[in-house]
Design a protein that fits this description.
elongated; 22% strand
């Protein structure tokens, strides 16, 4: 293989390596932020907040003092008695403060307020500070195990192939004139 061909091949692979590196570093950054509790990225999985947060929106939530919650804020919480679900709804009523704080919520698309009353024993809650409509759709799609396999297996094979071609690339023997 000529030096020009090798250079052209390396230049052609550069964008692939840049994208892979950006995805890897971005994923590590998001994981660190979420593990430290500084913020969370969540995907909207129902239509209860439409049109504000369409199905598949990606929302950024940050922890806030529960006393700072006001009517109109969009918060994320687990409904009382159900720690398996996460709900993102708008605050429609705030009563009391401190340990006596009581909050009522409602989804924008729901005709009535939620049946529960929220208390915040830890005095903290998650408040939505940013959203990206439809950006979370890939996460919804990847939540299904079969879809995950359809993406991850070929991606792993591609990365392995790229590494192997880099490792096993043999240099052409040099041609010397006798």
């Amino acid at each position: 293989m000529s030096p020009r061909w090798r250079m052209a091949r390396r230049l052609a692979m550069a964008p692939v390596w840049v994208v892979l590196t950006a995805v890897l570093l971005g994923s590590v950054g998001i994981a660190v932020i979420q593990r430290t509790g500084a913020a969370q990225l969540l995907t909207v999985v129902s239509g209860s907040m439409q049109p504000t947060l369409p199905l598949g929106s990606l929302v950024l939530v940050v922890p806030r003092d529960a006393d700072a919650v006001k009517v109109g804020d969009v918060i994320t919480f687990s409904p009382p008695g159900d720690d398996t679900r996460t709900v993102t709804h708008r605050v429609v009523d705030v009563q009391g403060s401190g340990d006596a704080l009581r909050v009522h919520t409602r989804g924008d698309a729901n005709p009535v307020a939620d049946t529960w009353t929220l208390n915040f024993p830890t005095r903290r809650t998650w408040v939505v500070v940013a959203d990206a409509p439809w950006v979370g759709r890939p996460w919804l799609w990847l939540a299904q195990p079969m879809h995950r396999q359809l993406v991850l297996v070929p991606a792993a094979l591609l990365v392995t192939l790229m590494w192997l071609t880099t490792i096993w690339r043999r240099e052409a023997p040099s041609r010397t004139a006798f």
